[in-house]
Amino acid sequence: MAKAVVTVIGKDKPGIIAGVSKTLSDHNINILDVSQTIMSDIFTMSMLVSLAQLDEEFNKLQDDLNLLGKQLTVEIHTQREEIFDAMSRV
Amino acid sequence: METTQITETINMVSEEHLDIRTVTMGISLLDTIAGTPQETAKNIYQKITTYAKNLVKVTQQIEREFGIPITNKRISVTPIALIAGKATPDEMLYYAHALDDAAKAVGVDFIGGYSALVQKGFANGDLALIKSLPRVLTETDLVMSSVNIGSTKAGINLDAIKLMGETIKAITDKSDTANAKMVVFANAVEDNPFMAGAFHGVSEADVVINVGVSGPGVVKRAIEKVKGESIQVVAETIKKTAFKITRVGQMVGALAAERLGVEFGIVDLSLAPTPARGDSVAEVLEEIGLEMVGTHGTTAALMLLNDAVKKGGVMASQRVGGLSGAFIPVSEDAGMIDAVKAGVLSLAKLEAMTAVCSVGLDMIAIPGETDATTIAAMIADEAAIGVQNNKTTAVRILPTNGAKVGDMIDYGGLLGTAPVMSVVEKSSAEFINRGGHIPAPIHSFKN
Predict the structure, then answer these.
(1) B140 plus B235 within the same structural domain
(2) Which of B8, B65, B248 comes nearest A58 by C-beta?
(3) Transmembrane ranges (chain A) (predicted)?
(4) Burial readout B293-325 (b: 16 or more C-beta within 10 A, e: otherwise)
(5) Chain B residues closer than 8 Å to A66 by CB
């Protein structure tokens, strides 16, 4: 199974976690791990999620999360986990 | 998974311009040679559009999945002079248009390999190709060309250099910008994914994926963090950063090759600037401690940078190849442009820098009235540096008719804008007009 990391960065406001979780649940995606902090008013969260399928489903999820990012005026990245491993592990 | 690693990676892409500069599919055309140029051209189109059909689609999907931009999708092919051995200069247009049409059909940014290797001498196809260049580079859009005129093993073909000086002038007479699509090499490499010099060498596999990674901004940011520390700390920092960047290239290349069902060739880690601020090799050199690139110490700083990039890259990838190092084009690098405008960076200093950078004199605008033999002599100087020192050197020089020193010439997009630089006005004509061949240098007895 592939894994992806969803990162959210932006000004803190109500509904960010709710919005992201709902979108993930709409896509039937399981959240494996969450880490979240607030640094001087900036909300940052990274979520590790499992992906059943890559191609089309992944693209749809990414589109929906990008749309949500626009609505919430935060930056949301959805990336496969391997890119982070590649850079920091040998 | 550590949050700091995630943030680091995301910042590299969004703030420091880390990108996969190119995924280049190398395609051998040796099996397309048929009885007539028309038939061969048809086969060339067929083979390229078959293998590269999904290149753009697959790379776009990878961009999406990993959130890393893949700026260019390209194709390189076997040097066309080898494929067109019997052709006349006019017939060469069939081959060039087949490449251009195929590149457009599959949607890539450029196709390289309209090339000839003449370090030792000319065959019929080589001469036909060189003679066709003014037409080909102005009548096609995506075709990129290179001519190799010297090598450490073969020496330097002065006849070819003379001919290339004249050809560059002839191209200028048809177009101010077409010379940006051609480079004159010494010691050209066979697996380079970067343009304009990419071609698919005859010793390569049938079809391969080569990847070029870039990220001068990432290196600059890393060096900012070690301000004031000793120079070996700088070297270590560059090595570690180059390692991380190359790992991304390795991963993307392997995946692209797998999805396209072809062999994975090499990762070329080249710090290749773009005109964007913060994506500049000049700024990296300045961060090492130079007030402005071009001042004394520039060559030393560049030597360290180029070497540390290679050392970091070599361990990060299964196979490192291409040109791997730091590119120093003028028009594509905001910091270089500033230094030329300020009168700090001269053509002479750039030439010295090419002795330690990854390639050579690149994207340099000069006045249009510069004599063909003077341009040839610049090529000869670069070739001499490369041939003597066992490295790749190249010249991509852009004479512009009607332009005076200091004028700014715009080449569009990633090719950027270049200030016209001054050239020494004394003649080199008698030297170039001697013609013939400069013997290969001796490899023992060095100093």
Answers:
(1) no
(2) B65
(3) none
(4) bbeeebbebbebbbbbbbebbbebbeebbbbbb
(5) none
Interface check for A66 against chain B (CB to CB < 8 A): the answer is: no
Q: Which two tokens stand for residue B235?
A: 């070297």
Residue B26 CA to residue B76 CA, distance in Å, equals 5
- B116 within domain boundaries: yes
Q: What is the ipTM of this complex?
A: 0.86
**Å between B220 CA and nearest CA of chain A:** 18
pLDDT tens figures, B217-269: 999 999 999 999 999 999 999 999 999 999 999 999 999 999 999 999 999 99
State whether residue B2 sits within 8 Å of chain A by CB: yes
pLDDT in tens, B9-36: 888 888 888 889 999 999 999 999 999 9
Query: Mind listing the domains of chain A with CATH numbers?
Result: 2-88 (3.30.70.260)
The domain of B356 spans 214-246+267-435
- Clarify whether residues B407 and B302 are in a common domain: yes
Classified as helix, coil or strand, A74 is strand
Residue A4 in contact with residue A84, Cβ under 8 Å? Answer: no
pLDDT tens per residue, range B107-156: 999 999 999 999 999 999 999 999 999 999 999 999 999 999 999 999 99
Residues B140 and B65 in one domain: yes
Contact A83 B2 (CB under 8 A): no
Residue A39 one-letter amino acid: M
CA distance A54 to chain B (A): 8
- Same domain, yes or no: B81 and B141: yes
Chain B residues within an 8 Å CB radius of A77:
10, 67
Q: Is A81 on the interface with B (CB under 8 A)?
A: yes
Domain assignment present for residue B393? The answer is yes
Which of these, A32, A9, A2, A5, lies nearest to A87 by C-alpha position? A5
The answer to whether residue B261 is domain-embedded is no
* Residue B360 belongs to domain with CATH number: 3.20.70.20
Of B218-222, B289-293, B430-434, the range with the lowest mean pLDDT is B218-222
Q: Which site among A8, A33, A36, A79 would you substitute to test the B interface, given the most B Cβ atoms closer than 10 Å to its Cβ?
A: A79
Quick check: B66 and A83 CB within 8 A? yes
Task: Characterize A17-40 residue by residue with b for buried, 16 or more Cβ atoms within 10 angstroms of its Cβ, and e for exposed.
Answer: eebbeebbeebebeeeeeeeeeee
